[in-house]
Amino acid sequence: MKIQDPxxxxxxxxxxxxxxxxxxxxxxxxxxxxxxxxxxxWKPHQVMRLxxxxxxxEVLDTDMLWICxxxxxxxxxxxxxxxxxxxxxxxxxxxxxxxxFVRDEKKFYTEFLDLIKRYGRLNTMRMFLRVTGLKGFTExxxxxxxxxxxxxxxxxxxxxxxxxxxxxxxxxxxxxxxx
Length: 179
Ligand code: SF4
Ligand code: SF4
Hints:
This protein has helices spanning about 10-15, 30-35, 45-55, 55-60, 65, 75, 85-95, 105-120, 125-140, 140-150, 165-175. By secondary structure, the protein is mostly helical. Helix 8 packs across helix 9 (about 125-140). The protein is elongated. Bound molecules: iron/sulfur cluster (2 copies). The site of one iron/sulfur cluster (SF4) has 14 residues, from helix 6 and helix 7. One iron/sulfur cluster (SF4) binds near residues 24, 30, 48, 78 and 84.
């Protein structure tokens, strides 16, 4: 593990959603409530601990962070009032804004949000191309054709009526985003 950043926990706690991080006393109730924790590298209580100890690179790269389904089971059961789900969201947003941070899920999130911003809805074909690249696209031509022939994928789905309003939501949100 790299040298930790002692100020990291304060940064997380200063971002809306991360305020309760420092209340964690490591009881593990969040982990025992989480439907995914048995399968993953770091459990929710360990993710909180990594963040408190300032292991930024490690915490942003935990599978737990990226597989969390926002079910809130951890948050509603935490005896210390730590909003674990919201803290996870803050950490994910930090990873998304960190230009040096690379991970497949980040690419997926980034491309997904960009397409929603541009078209007001998901453009499946473009999403597939952006995430898998031309190689993945050609490897899955048969599946793609099958979906296309059933009307599940459109070549030119067009923009949603009201796309500009969706774009404005994105612009406003980014302005108020993590510093
Ligand atoms: S349940 Fe709350 S206090 Fe306990 S480990 Fe999880 S976040 Fe920390
Ligand atoms: S919100 Fe995320 S971390 Fe919390 S219990 Fe649900 S899946 Fe697990």
